Amino acid sequence: MKINIINKSKHKLPEYKTALAAGMDLRANLDEPITLRSLERKIIPTGLYLEIPPGYEGQIRARSGLALKHGIGCPNSPGTIDADYRGELGVILVNWSKDDFVINDGDRVAQLVISKHETVEWVEVSELNNTSRGNGGYGSSGIN
Membrane-spanning regions, if any (predicted)? Predict the structure, then answer.
């Protein structure tokens, strides 16, 4: 798949780090470091602008190493980039740890996954087909 991209950052384009990776690392594009204090949220600019094809979305996801080692994540993960959005890609990060965390220019702050999706056309009906689960909700399967 080919996607048009404008790179206004100081960094190379996102890339897959291994042959079977689903996500590409996104880098912070900063003029000066940003400090995320405990429980603080900020949008981190990337300098990237995408033209995602119809029927696809971009998903911004946390990097597992940042989450495990530093408590840094994406509070709306995955964050959705719609195919009709043309603004700069920003990454919302939160610091769930008790320690300050400094983000420097060029740091890998999140992953971008491009994913296919369907567009739904609702069909209103008066009842739904029955299943063995029925309306059983949270915890209804009996498995702990």
Answer: none
In a domain, 58, yes or no: yes
H or E segment and range at residue 129: none
CATH code at position 39: 2.70.40.10
Locate all alpha helices (DSSP H) within 1-144, ordered by sequence: 64-70
Amino acid at 85: Y
Task: Tell me whether residue 142 is in a domain.
Answer: no
When divided into structural domains, the chain yields a total of 1
Cα–Cα nearest to 37, from 95, 107, 104: 95
Q: What's the pLDDT tens digit per position in 41-86?
A: 999 999 999 999 999 999 999 999 999 999 999 999 899 999 999 9
Binding residues for substrate: 63-65, 76, 80-82
Whole-model pTM over 0.85: yes
Asked if the structure places residue 144 within a domain, the reply is no
Tokens coding 23: 């996500």
| Domain range for 72 | 4-116
**Chain segment 79-137, per-residue pLDDT in tens:** 999 999 999 999 999 999 999 999 999 999 999 999 999 999 999 999 999 988 888 77
Residues annotated within the binding site are 63-65, 76, 80-82
